[in-house]
Amino acid sequence: MRVRKVKVMRYSERASYDRDELMRVLNRNFICHVGFIDDGESYVIPMLYVNDDQYIYMHGSPNSRLIKIVGSGSPIVIAVTEVHGIVLASNLCNNSINYESVIIYGRGSFINDPSEKLRIFQLIINRLVPGRLSDTELPSIDELNSVTVVKVSIEDFAIKRREGGPTISSDKHWEGIIPIMTVYGMPINTNNKPTPKYLIDLVKSHQPT
């Protein structure tokens, strides 16, 4: 019987272990926090990531401590969090946050094949800015070889979310939710090239509805 490394104990009714839900959260985001142990000390470092259905991918300098540890196969933990709103209750202790988060346990390995490295970088730019791939200069083999790329298997995970208003309500003071949304501002030109349509479309798709 498989034993979970990640199991939500507090407010366990808010937890999910559904892999499709995990993919939806990962696919919406591109920043994670990676926790690891090095020489008996614990560290957490924010990283740009991309994923497919099997792995989470990150890249960095060959001299990066984090990249070396991830690629070596040491156990790591990855966290991704979305903050959706501030929940205000009448009682000070009942204020809260609406959110969705995932915690992932896994082990990494190095990717050495230049063609696979290129695929990962293509995944990253497609995640960050859809349409940019056809409007960018591809790296040379030497450039690909100068960067270390790692992949992390998803060995275990848990999703936790909070939705709705205060769990304990009162009419003594205003109560409710302040939504928090991610919006994109207009692109800032730095080389006098006209702004491509795919950037305008990206900004429009990240405006409040």
Short overview:
With 209 residues, the chain is α+β, with helices and mostly antiparallel strands.
Indicate the topology:
Blueprint: E1 15-16, H1 19-28, E2 31-38, E3 41-48, E4 50-51, E5 55-60, H2 65-72, E6 75-88, E7 96-111, H3 114-128, H4 141-145, E8 148-162, E9 176-179, H5 197-205
Antiparallel strand pairs: 1-8, 2-3, 2-6, 4-5, 5-8, 6-7, 6-9, 7-8
Structure description:
With 209 residues, the protein is an alpha+beta fold. It has one domain (12-178): Electron Transport, Fmn-binding Protein, Chain A (Pnp Oxidase, Chain A). It is 22% helix and 36% strand. The protein has helices at 19-28, 65-72, 114-128, 141-145, 197-205; strands at 15-16, 31-38, 41-48, 50-51, 55-60, 75-88, 96-111, 148-162, 176-179. Strands 1, 2, 3, 4, 5, 6, 7, 8 and 9 form a nine-stranded antiparallel β-sheet that branches. Strand 2 and strand 3 (41-48) form a beta hairpin. The radius of gyration is 20 Å and the shape is globular. The model has no long low-confidence stretch (mean pLDDT 93).
